Amino acid sequence: MTGQGLAQIALYFGVLLLITKPLGVYITAIFDGRVRFLSLLERPLYKLAGVKDGEEMRWQHYALAVLIFNVLGVITVYALQRFQDTLPLNPAGFAAVSADSSFNTALSFVTNTNWQGYAGETTMSYLTQMLALTVQNFLSAATGIVMAIALIRGFARKSANTIGNAWIDLTRCTLYLLLPICVVFALVLVSQGVIQNFSDYLTVETLDGGKQTIAMGPVASQEAIKMLGTNGGGFFNANSAHPFENPTAFSNFLQMLSIFAIPAALCWVFGRMVGDTRQGWAILAAMMITFAGFLIVVTVAEQQGNPVLTALGADQTVSTLQSGGNMEGKEVRYGITNSALFATITTAASCGAVNAMHDSFTPIGGFVPMMLIQLGEVIFGGAGSGLYGMLMFAIIAVFIAGLMIGRTPEYIGKKIEAFDMKMVSVAILITPLLVLVGTAIAVVTDAGIASRANPGAHGFSEILYAFSSAANNNGSAFAGISANVPFYNLMLGITVWFGRFLPIVAVLAVAGNLASKKQVPAGAGTLPTHGPLFITLLIGSVLLVGALTFIPALALGPFVEQLMMLGR
Q: What is the signed CA dihedral for 353, 356, 362, 367, rounded to 10 degrees?
């Protein structure tokens, strides 16, 4: 790894840590009800929804409210796509989106997955991009964040029957956290060259005398929440590799920073709300150590390049075409380090944005983003979903420690009992089940195989990555699979829905059960959950579950492809 690359990575981590606590303080104040500068707008919304300010819910009611809210979102996004040809703000005159693609996109954006089987600039009208996709970017991010807050309340409360109010939490998260930051962020992106307009598409003459259509649109407003809410997707098919979405090195840095901003800050929020900030820093440390390990692997793999790609020179000597590293599928303005860093960030988080094509990475370089997704995206993870996913692994870690010494495990002063472990098991194991079953069905059916761009191990990796991305609500793709077909639109649509909401219901069940328990004082046999031993145990639990679940499948894809590459 070059010195310049190390400096770029060090700068990124430094700025991220610098903003973690201030943003965490602000988020805590929001959910404590101390931030109310838009109360004149907030109160009418509660009245319209029939919600009383201050009224709280049991976990079952909280879960039902979240499900109803998101089902309504699916219906709205589906309808806007199906009728976009009759609606305004469609300067390119796009036809209605097909039923299967509309189904997939509606489920994808509502679940914070943002998987796109279509090219945005040739499929979606401005109205659909704004009213359907951008709005859901806000609401799906808010859903993940309030789930994490509900779980934190479960740990923090004693002998309580409620974990908050879903409608109030969603409103405050959107009004006070996501909207204000995104307004400022969008303006900064515009200053960097990200477009924001309602112009007709432009037809220009190229240097060789040909004609080219250049897509326009309200891009910056979608780009801001796409990153901050760990949504992914993109206004353009090229995503964050497109110069209208991500034009400069500074915009690239800000986009990477915004992806991790809320997940990192929520770790501090966790520690603050449970009364011991060391707990939050321990979770954050486990995330950063694991992230750094994966980042080193992908960066070194891409800087080494592919030894198979060689050329015969004029002097009859053989030279490696990628002696400077693997630049295939990467933007020259970002280079290898920033492309590897972006890929690791976007797949460690539940964000499908990409500034390079993962399908063009080396086999081990492509393994890293795939494995990060398969770990459940808990290494920072999505806005909210990363923290509640990591807390599920924290419960497993203390459970394992409890088994070692033969006593009931405890975490943050709460005994972890049979019901908690059953729900934790559901939350963690449902996504591997969806990934492996979905991949198995795809590789044994003609419809699943027909969409592969490559045969053999790499083709298998494309399918495995697609289902891993869908079940874990990431949304990025190897891009070598033609997914906008009925088979994948339906299969992946079902996968993103169950991959999002079955774990959410399980997490809320854990939150409700923990909130009802009394606080147990730490004893001589209590495992300290803020020190190096617990951090190591937590990292081991995450990696062990991932290895046991996915290594056999990965052996058929990137591992065998790497061996084939080295064997030439």
A: -10
Residue 194 lies in a domain: yes
pTM of the model: 0.94
- The β-bridge partners of 134 are none
* Residue 49 in domain: yes
Residue 192 has pLDDT above 70, yes or no: yes
CA 368 to chain CA centroid, nearest Å: 15
CB-count burial class (<10 Å; 0-12, 13-18, 19+) for 407:
middle
Q: Quick: pLDDT tens for 279-300.
A: 999 999 999 999 999 999 999 9
Helices (H), 32-58: 39-49
Range of the domain at 120: 22-266
Give the pLDDT confidence score for residue 36 in this predicted structure: 82
DSSP state of 123: T
Q: Please name the amino acid found at residue 409.
A: P
Nearest-angstrom CA–CA distance, 127 and 81 = 9
Cα torsion angle, 329, 334, 335, 337, sign: negative
- Is position 38 within any domain? yes
User: What's the total number of domains in the chain?
Assistant: 1
pLDDT for position 318: 46
The pLDDT of residue 53 is above 70: yes
The amino acid at residue 254 is L
pLDDT grade for 358, boundaries at 50, 70 and 90: confident
Query: Residue 224 falls within a domain, yes or no?
Result: yes
- Quote the CA–CA distance of 218 and 235 in Å, as a whole number: 9
Q: How far is CA 379 from CA 112, 283, 296, 565, in A?
A: 17, 10, 15, 29
User: What type of residue is 245?
Assistant: E
* Contacts by residues 89-95 (CB-CB < 8 Å, ≥ 24 positions apart): 89/125, 89/126, 89/127, 89/130, 89/198, 90/125, 90/126, 90/127, 91/125, 91/126, 91/198, 91/199, 91/200, 91/201, 92/122, 92/125, 92/200, 92/201, 92/215, 94/122, 94/123, 94/124, 94/125
Q: What is the pLDDT of residue 540?
A: 94
Each residue's pLDDT tens digit, 362-412:
899 999 999 999 998 899 999 999 999 999 999 999 998 888 877 778 899
3-state secondary structure of 458: helix
Whole-angstrom distance, CA of residue 223 vs CA of residue 114: 13
Out of 41-55, 132-146, 282-296, 552-566, pick the least confident.
41-55
CB contact set of 408 (below 8 Å; sequence gap of 6+): 402, 415, 416, 417
**Residues 94, 107: Cα–Cα separation, whole Å:** 21
Q: How many angstroms separate the Cα of 230 from the Cα of each of 139, 166, 349, 382?
A: 12, 20, 7, 5
State the residue for tokens 């400077």. Answer: 324
Number of H helices, E strands in the chain: 20, 6
